[in-house]
Amino acid sequence: MTATQFIAVDAAALEAVQTELQEIKRILEASHVTPPAKWITVAAYAAKVDRSEATVRRWIREGQLERNRKLVRNPDV
After folding, report:
1. For 26-43, what is the mean pLDDT?
2. What number of CA atoms fall less than 13 Å from residue 9's CA on the CB side?
3. pLDDT at position 1, please?
4. Domain total for the chain?
């Protein structure tokens, strides 16, 4: 025979947790995760790596960065 164990819970606290969980569930169901872009602009790349656009363009000319038309590969991908 298995013994049943009961615990005392404050009803108001339990209701608050349930309300918060419902809100979290609503937010998660409404969210859409999009992967980062494979290619980004020179300006966006410069901002991500905290360098000037001129520096990023120089890196492109020197072959240090992969380029696709006017875009560079996103460092986050």
Report:
1. 92
2. 11
3. 67
4. 1
